[in-house]
Amino acid sequence: MISQLFILSSKGDHLIYKDYRGEAGSDVIDVFYEKVTALTGDQPPVVMSHKDLHFVHIRQGGLYWVATTTADSSPFSIIEFLNRLSGLVKDYCGSLSEKAIQMNFALIYELLDEVLDYGYVQTTSSDVLKNFIQSEAVSSKPFSLFDLSNVGLFGAETQQNKVAPSSAATRPIQSSRDPGGKSEIFVDVIEKMSVVIGSNGVLMKADIEGEIRVKCYMPSCSEMRIGLNEEFSVGKSQLRGYGAAVRVDECSFHQSVQLDEFQSHRILRLCPSQGEHTVMQYRLSDELPSAPPFRLFPSVERDSAGRLLMYLKLRCDLPPKRSVSLLPEGAGLSQELSSPDQSAELQLQNRTVFWKIPRLCGGTQLSALFKLDVPGLSSASMLEVGPVGLSFELPKWTGTGLQIRFLRLSPVHPGPSQRWVRYVTHSDSYIIRI
Amino acid sequence: MQEWASQLCENRQFGSKMTDSKYFTTTKKGEIFELKAELNSDKKEKKKEAVKKVIASMTVGKDVSALFPDVVNCMQTDNLELKKLVYLYLMNYAKSQPDMAIMAVNTFVKDCEDPNPLIRALAVRTMGCIRVDKITEYLCEPLRKCLKDEDPYVRKTAAVCVAKLHDINAQLVEDQGFLDTLKDLISDSNPMVVANAVAALSEIAESHPNSNLLDLNPQTINKLLTALNECTEWGQIFILDCLANYTPRDDRESQSICERVTPRLSHANSAVVLSAVKVLMKFMEMLPKDLDYYGTLLKKLAPPLVTLLSAEPELQYVALRNINLIVQRRPEILKHEMKVFFVKYNDPIYVKLEKLDIMIRLASQANIAQVLAELKEYATEVDVDFVRKAVRAIGRCAIKVEQSAERCVSTLLDLIQTKVNYVVQEAIVVIKDIFRKYPNKYESVIATLCENLDSLDEPEARAAMIWIVGEYAERIDNADELLESFLEGFHDESTQVQLQLLTAIVKLFLKKPTETQELVQQVLSLATQDSDNPDLRDRGYIYWRLLSTDPVAAKEVVLAEKPLISEETDLIEPTLLEELICHIGTLASVYHKPPSAFVEGSRGVQHKRLPGSAGSGESVESPDTGSAAGVSDAPPAVIPSQGDLLGDLLNLDLTPPATTGPPPPATSGMQLGAMDLLGGGLDSLMGDESEPLGGDLGGSSAMGAGFGAPPAAPAASFSAPVSGGLDDLFDLGGGVGMPMGAYSPPKTVWLPAMKGKGLEISGTFARRAGVIQMEMTLTNKAMSVMTDFAIQFNRNSFGLAPAGPLQVLTPLSPNQSIEVTLPLNTVGPVMKMDPLNNLQVAVKNNIDVFYFSCQYPISMLFVEDGKMERQVFLATWKDISNDNEAQFQIKDCHLSSDAVSNKLQGSNIFTIAKRTVDGQDMLYQSTKLSNGIWVLAELRVQTGNPTFTVCLKCRAPEVSQCVFQSYDAVLKN
């Protein structure tokens, strides 16, 4: 049971405060802020206690979303709830920021009144809530699809590629009530990859966690059918059809998804509610269908002058014509890089070399030589070098090979409607040991 | 709009300076005045904007209560948006302005009748939130109507309102019969209503632990399970949490509930998943392990748990804390999933540490190579804390998986080669632990360790190194030089290092007396004369005296064999673990503390127990479970299994030592073989019986040999009190029911005649004049005469063994009973039993051998010298970690604290101090068990309250439960 709920800005200003059970005063807000800012890195921030009050909080959009409780309630449901709440607020206000919250506080109080009653979560579904919410959202900026100042996720090329920028979906859901509003739907396949490659080049661990996320801005969409690859299979043993199967170990679905056509035709049927939700989540461990996208060939040695030499060769094994942006990091410098648009810097406080590569084409190879002056370098300290971590973003590519075959909406919408299907793979933790 | 947004920004500056009241009031006046005018404006839009401004000020912590009447005036409107805003204001200020809040009541009552269900629900919801006593009486009628409203939205809001009202005025809710209406709502057609009714009832029931409010029976459970499928995800959580409190009647019911809960495991909401896991973990206890379904369920639990780890770090952390518990309870669930716990490079440190812990818990021979490779990799990372933990983890692996010890040691040596200061220090600390587990096995590494002596600057590492040098002084040629080098800065060292250094040098002296006399004198004088630390001084004096009076004894004491350490030291204590498993997914599972430790206040916190294990305690007492002839209906949890029992009895080595009989036959022939061996063993004991009996314990040497007990010394020292005890017995005659101070439970039937081929044994245990006695009544219900009685115990937790043979001198004729008293001692072989005070007994007569098990009250093991000094008590209490504390409640005990303390004294529970705080008497008590375990207790007695709270602290927390039972029994008899 949630006793109080409040939203703070990153500077600790009170934006929203609601007390559900009268168990503690509003002075605890400042207590919370003091505690959360005093946390050190190795203390888990999840649950903090003050007398007999427990704080559970998340950070979204640069804000603190905090719930307090006095009973032995479940931090899981509270965190989950706070995440949903921030999602709801984002759906309703268009974006998450201090300003958006301030301008829409009446709306947010109204939401808070409906989603929680006496600390019991009532509902977080925007479909149900739309029946109760009266206030209109105040948007800070009129939405424009071609507002390029916000293009981030997919790089600058997006416009030529005719891909909707990721900011396209940041607008209030209620604006779709207006007859003139654009009706659009976005289906994103997002995968996070974590890979460990041993010092001998052997792939030690490879996991992919993926999700299909739907952002719906359709005023009247009764049913949507998403077709996945037909050869998609779940579990270790089950194989379908011939050729390379698209396989995942486990998947789970949003409760609104109907799976009657899933077994036979791999079709997800759902009635999307307004806003953003994750329709399907899946996970694949160890047996990736393709080789990992990047290989690194490192050599680390000590030269005659007692300097540490690191020669790194990075190869991208993706099909050609795919470009990625990368940020590998290693273990203080003179540098020789293979092309001019890259950059490298030494970060002393965390003892890493940061090699930044704006773009890497599939099938190509880059190399870098770092020379480091390390005082008191011994052969034993060579053992301390490494590992190399890569962070990257691969658009239009999925590690599992999952594809959206088709996207059908019914009833067929008369006016101009747009459907977008986007794929992206991020690195979660891509480690190459030296 | 922009306007009051900018105002908000301005207000925030006030919010942070709320204490600056002077500044605050001066600006407020004008502003409030302005708002007042706007609130009373005729234009609806303007009114709405004004109320919004008021609420904006309220949010940032400004006091706008002066506007109360003006805002309430805006209440009567048909604009829902405005109404909501006004209600929001009301909820905030009603408490501080109760009189004015009454003004709003009429509107509320009216709104509750509004044709629009949204308004009805809004009114009833808001009224419940106005925590003013006066309002409650007006609330009852509208609430009653709303509970029966046709619209489910109103009903679900009303259901929650009952809980709100109950919190303000519980009596009123009961008088008005709202609870019954609420119970009816469990059968509502709308799942949302059901979920809220369940949530409300659960909360109300929590504050009345004994009420039967949430009457869970198979019918209601069925209803809940049906609603589960239709509810929203949040409703599912309420229902699952409620289900977790239910105890199924049998394994079939528990299986069917599990089957219906399992689909929730694939829910996208991780809170639903974890609540489902909780229900399954709990009900699984009741399923027989050989059931196919049990295996299926185990398999189904792994994937959702793994999926939880793909969430954000915060959720991952919570999930890991829970998985840590699950892994300790049922390691088999995740035994194949080791890889998912491998640390990611970019995990936050708190997630990394938690993963590391789980990795070690899952480490086994099968995966140890993989784990070690990972740990070695972690040990080269940048983060110092993590590296330390990783090195420590390698040590724990070595201790846990014996086969891997060698590989672990060589990995540690590799790490020491890196010469990274903190890695080396940490490695030395864990190598010390490895030496404690595997003595005399890896001394070859000592040379490498010694090379790094100079780089050690942390006390723990220095102490560890000194310990190693002292322990293996005879193998290190320059041990004396090494220790001497530490001695130079003796006074600058921390206590830990000083103590260790003292001990190490004394060890060295005992091993190489000739060369080190000077050194030992030096350290003794440093410790005793130049130090202010009492611990150090005392230890120094003890060594000094030992060395000067009896060097041989000193050798025995200082160089005694040390008990091996085991990996169990870092496991959560089982009863706590059981309780925490019942709280999976809650704060308790994150803190790893029982809820009573951090939830304050009136809500009675009940200790939850897992169903299976709670049942086993009772069923042991039923006498038929221990019978020998392979009774299949005995629950497996009670006595490990028939095979085990026989096996254990076999291990007693009943055959005379001279005959090196064949090894115990394996499985199939087990039972027969066991009988034979036992028969032989008992016969040989019978032979002893023909020797003179009485005080000299003729049998004891044979018994001693039979049990493999230590030779003559203990037997001799026991003969005096035992014979005294025997004399006493004869004086006492029957000896039953004589009030001797110590509590002795009434006799119960241990072996019914049906199982004993006509021999019925009932009995009890008592402690009389410092001697533990087993008092039995043997009754012959068969048609023939019984002779040749003998008795034998299995190994048990406290080494209880008969101090003499069973004295049935005359044959027992049909329908005759005889009272027998068997003195016991505690020098027998020890084996931990479950429950702790379980005793498995074999009795033989001319007909057959019979087995039964019984439980002895642990109070008979409380020795007479169990009174601790106050100071010692205080120090010990502090010294024992809080994890070893257990809390229990004794109900329905109408005794004053003095009477309590007298009564307990009779059973050797000594009250050391008494303190009275707020009418509550706190008794501090100590008890010593026959095996030297001290139990400290804090007993809280509140005058007029029949429920006492006992807090037990003990270094061996597993005895707490038994000790509590004794408290309970002693106080109630």
From TrEMBL, chain A:
Official protein name in the record: AP-4 complex subunit mu-1
Domain of life: Eukaryota
GO cellular component, one term: clathrin adaptor complex
SUPFAM superfamilies named among the record's database cross-references: Second domain of Mu2 adaptin subunit (ap50) of ap2 adaptor, SNARE-like
Transmembrane parts of this sequence: none
Protein location: Early endosome; Golgi apparatus, trans-Golgi network membrane; Membrane, Coated pit
Pfam family, one: Adap_comp_sub
Residue span, MHD domain: 182-433
Keyword Iron in annotation: no
Membrane topology: Peripheral membrane protein
Statement: the UniProt record of this protein carries the keyword Transport: yes
Family named by the database record: Belongs to the adaptor complexes medium subunit family.
Main location: other
One GO process term, biological-process aspect: vesicle-mediated transport
Purpose: Component of the adaptor protein complex 4 (AP-4). Adaptor protein complexes are vesicle coat components involved both in vesicle formation and cargo selection. They control the vesicular transport of proteins in different trafficking pathways. AP-4 forms a non clathrin-associated coat on vesicles departing the trans-Golgi network (TGN) and may be involved in the targeting of proteins from the trans-Golgi network (TGN) to the endosomal-lysosomal system.
Keywords for the protein's UniProt record, in alphabetical order: Coated pit, Endosome, Golgi apparatus, Membrane, Protein transport, Transport
